[in-house]
């Protein structure tokens, strides 16, 4: 149980929290999606990663999956829906129906905002084939600046959210010592046939399709930075030799809340 060493500022904050001088900030519900595609023959699955801009307040410079916080409107009953119901998702995610609806909607909305991948279609058995036109880009930007609600976006295009295209994968909560905290459900999904990802999103300055094992090796070399939840998810994905194997995997969703402990006189962040 070695964990990650905390910088002095967070170590001081940890002492204040333990002593009751500072209260942890609440964790915001959020969702993130590891978008997968089949790589070259024999290469296994690839995953879409974005590098967050160095100016971002949270996880600056880190390579992450598309995702973000739940918009209050994501829980709107008006969101057109196909696939497992919010109640079913609630059982999977250990959340009430309203929260589950918001998490699934946020997963689909944020994935579109940050990658251009849209897990929605005209009906329960179809999916949009192309989202690269100027009109799609205008809608994507309107979703990002919150001038367009996700329910209205789907309605005006005659689309339904395809919740069956998501697979629940993990549940991480940001440590209490952090100043920005998220209660994040991790999902996996497959890049729909015909769709293409964008080169960059609003919060990213670089994107890449990478085999999970390659991303982990680059992080080991210090070439890229991965947050612990991203690193753990990529590590888990290395166990599967194809996208189909990932989707067929049985998952038990266990909540992970890393703890801050003083070990041999040094403050460290540990996950177990």
TrEMBL record:
Keyword tags: Hydrolase, Magnesium, Manganese, Metal-binding
InterPro entries named among the record's database cross-references: NUDIX_hydrolase-like_dom_sf, NUDIX_hydrolase_dom, NUDT19
Keyword Manganese (UniProt): yes
Molecular function via GO: hydrolase activity, acting on acid anhydrides, in phosphorus-containing anhydrides; metal ion binding
Cofactor: Mn(2+); Mg(2+)
Domain called Nudix hydrolase: residue spans: 26-232
Highest taxon listed in the record's lineage: Bacteria
UniProt cross-references to PANTHER family, sorted A to Z: ACYL-COENZYME A DIPHOSPHATASE NUDT19 (PTHR12318:SF0), TESTOSTERONE-REGULATED PROTEIN RP2 (PTHR12318)
Protein name per the record: Nudix hydrolase domain-containing protein
Origin species: Nonomuraea cavernae
